[in-house]
């Protein structure tokens, strides 16, 4: 049953405690064991979930397998992550991929890694000299 508590006699606040049914609660992150023999990356966000959820020792065990699957999903992602270890402009990134410096080309190859936090902007997105750099999570996909 729910529990209600106040700070009698002032009654300036109340606290409501609503219990969650045990059947509704999923396993905690500590209880989830990843079977590395059946890892499947169908989209980049699958890989991002693994990067964020696995401990560094478990990540070391699956890095190569995940990298291979990321390449199958989007072969240019690793090129961009490797290239952006030092800050690079959008023009430089498009040049690496041998594409024209158009917004649609940039979004196609760097948009999802940017959304997933694998690369980030070094300044305000409206600055003319904005550059992109690989984040720690992006570096996890790269070889040691």
**Secondary-structure element string:** EEHHHEHHEEH
Mean pLDDT: 78
Report the sheet-strand fraction: 5-15%
Count the strands? 5
**Order of strands across the biggest sheet?**
3-5-4
Major beta sheet summary: 3 strands, antiparallel
The low-confidence runs, each spanning 5 or more residues with pLDDT under 50, are: none
Tell me, what's the shape? elongated
Structural class: alpha+beta
Radius of gyration, CA atoms, in whole angstroms:
22 Å
Number of helices: 6
Percentage of residues assigned to helices: 40-55%
Distance N to C terminus:
53 Å
Plain-language structure description:
The chain is α+β, with helices and mostly antiparallel strands and 144 residues long. 42% of the residues lie in helices and 12% in strands. The protein is built from 6 helices and 5 strands. The chain has a 3-stranded antiparallel sheet with strand order 3-5-4. A two-stranded antiparallel ribbon has the order 1-2. Helix 1 runs antiparallel to helix 2 (56-73). The longest helix is centred in the middle third of the chain and has 18 residues, at 56-73. The protein is elongated and about 70 Å long. The relative contact order is 0.13. The model has no long low-confidence stretch (mean pLDDT 78).
